[in-house]
Amino acid sequence: MRATRLFIAAGLGFSLLACGDVTSPITGGPDAAVAGVTPSLPVSEIRSAPPLDIRHGSWWAVQGKQTRFIASFREAHKAKSLFLAFTIPSSAQLVAPGGRRLATGDSIRITVDLVSKTLEAHFAPHGLTFADGVPAQLAISYAYADLRGLPATALAVWYQPTTSEPWMKQSTAIDRDHKLATTEISHFSQYALRFDNYAVAYSAVAR
Q: Which among 1, 150, 157, 189 has most CB atoms closer than 10 A?
């Protein structure tokens, strides 16, 4: 299918914030600290978190053109603040489910659903990949996350291939100035900001 249009839901326009104090989550730790620990746990929004301006997006991504999707918090009497940002660079090679590489100008319909009161996003079509070493970028804000008193370095972006499979950790950068967790993704799946229990256990022992 060939398309010349690119529709992005809800008037999307996006510019990634410049990273300030960027660190990676702590990993590893003493064996005694992590033995029997579940690899990750979900992160929830605090009760007072403002609503999002959008929870479902659907658009045509065109090979060779940059695609950007953002969802923002609707804060009372304030400008919107970023919750989630997703970008496909113009140089990324899209590969449809089944392995067909899109030619320049070809398009594929993308959807994203944000799960209420969580920091989780479901991307479709499942099986879409980004080839040739140019991944998509995903940023999730933890500004309204319930961190349970834990440091931001206990957070990471994780993905779940299917609901019956375990969550897998992504290499994640934590920007503590802007309260953003960012990662690069090479395929569509379910993505979420979650606690890295190994990092939590390491931090507890290190104190």
A: 157
